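Entry 14. Ran structure prediction on the chain below.
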Amino acid sequence: MEAARVDKLEALLDDGAGRWLLLEETGATLKALYELSTTPEYEWLFLETPYSGFLKYSPLVIRVDSLRSELFQIFREDPVGGRFPGILVTSHAAEAEVLDHLRRCLAVRFYGERLGMVRFYHPAVAAVLFSPEAQPGAEWLGPLERWVWFGGTLAQQADVGLGWYGFGTGDVQETSVSPSDSSSPIPLSSSQERALEVYMRQQRDWRIYRRPGDRLEEAESCRHFWAAFQLAETQGIPADQRRKFFADSRKWPAEDLLARIEDVSLKQRWETWREPIVDHGKRSAR
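Output, structure tokens:
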């Protein structure tokens, strides 16, 4: 199953369902909220959780009763880098039930019995966690109708560009992890573990790859980095060699880098083909 990308957020909102924004606290989010209203209504996501000692970093949960509200309009315009970055959920359940579920989703079990917290309220993490490849289970939905976020995974952005995505009741795959006790941390599927591992390597490599002016939101930068990252992964380029690898890869267009993934044997290492890259993209005879 492929995640459906839509251009308009409204296409993912269920008729009659309640809507809640989960806004990440950037250090300016709460201040911006009070600039819209002197008496804003919100809940701290971390309240009544093991993370309640970190409320200053807690995302804000805000019910949206009107799609015409100023807050919703600002969120919709730029849900990643704007004044109110975050995601949205919909549900027919009562707010208390929605809050209980969202707070439960903070704690996850992974690699067997290891425990940790996952930032599902960040659009990029939600895109990875709820992608079809990650095979998220029904436990993530609970009383929710749908999780909604903007952007997409790096692969989705490189393929079709930025857009709105959702994970709902019709998207649960049969191979997903079976439900566990609702009071226990949600177990990540092995596919979710792998997807998050790749995401963390992408974040590390993007910091190495990027130059002033590069932005993943720009199609050309995104496609080229995605191609270079895939080739680095396929060829098993060590982390300490990727800076040089990415610098050399810029001499090739994304299409040529992608072609290399199929053209070059997996047994061949970077040293066997880096010279053609340095030679301004001219292919050597083979």
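DSSP finds ten helices and nine strands in the chain. Will compare against last week's run tomorrow.
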